[in-house]
């Protein structure tokens, strides 16, 4: 009798665990990476993200053999976008690293360490100038 009760209890636990796993459904697919920048109206993702196109930009993975139009069907802009510039990107503002250093007397935010080696042309790819400039 005791053996029958033990087996019944084991069966009930096993059945409950199986039901709980089935209720969860199939495992979720991994989410695509978020775009850590604004697209700035660019339709040609591969102009920057093609393998070998830009040493400072992450290239598309080998398994991505899609046209530009396919990128935004999976990848969405991140909630936290790069900061906007407080000034225009004009002739006076072409050398970002002059002001954007630690302790700048202008109060400009220092360029993050992971931006080392990037020039002003690269900055404007992600950072938008002040609205109306």
Number of strands: 0
Oligomer: single chain
Instruction: State which percent range the strand residues make up.
Output: under 5%
The helix fraction, in percent, is 25-40%
**Overall shape:** elongated
Provide a descriptive summary of the structure in words:
- With 133 residues, the chain is mainly α.
- The chain has a domain at 82-133.
- The chain has 5 helices and no strands.
- The mean pLDDT is 75.
Could you name the key traits of this structure?
133 residues, mainly alpha, elongated
Structure in a nutshell:
With 133 residues, this protein is mainly α. It has a domain at 82-133.
What is the secondary structure topology, with strand pairs?
Layout: H1 2-24, H2 46-49, H3 71-74, H4 96-99, H5 120-126
């Amino acid at each position: 009798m005791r053996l029958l009760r033990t087996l019944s209890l084991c069966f009930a636990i096993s059945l409950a665990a199986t039901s709980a796993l089935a209720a969860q459904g199939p495992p979720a697919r991994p989410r695509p990476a978020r775009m850590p920048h604004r697209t700035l109206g660019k339709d040609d993702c591969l102009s920057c993200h093609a393998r070998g196109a830009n040493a400072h930009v992450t290239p598309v993975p080998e398994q991505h053999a899609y046209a530009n139009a396919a990128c935004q069907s999976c990848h969405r802009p991140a909630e936290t976008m790069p900061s906007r510039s407080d000034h225009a990107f004009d002739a006076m503002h072409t050398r970002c690293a002059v002001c954007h250093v630690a302790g700048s007397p202008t109060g400009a935010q220092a360029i993050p360490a992971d931006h080392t080696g990037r020039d002003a042309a690269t900055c404007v790819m992600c950072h938008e100038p002040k609205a109306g400039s």
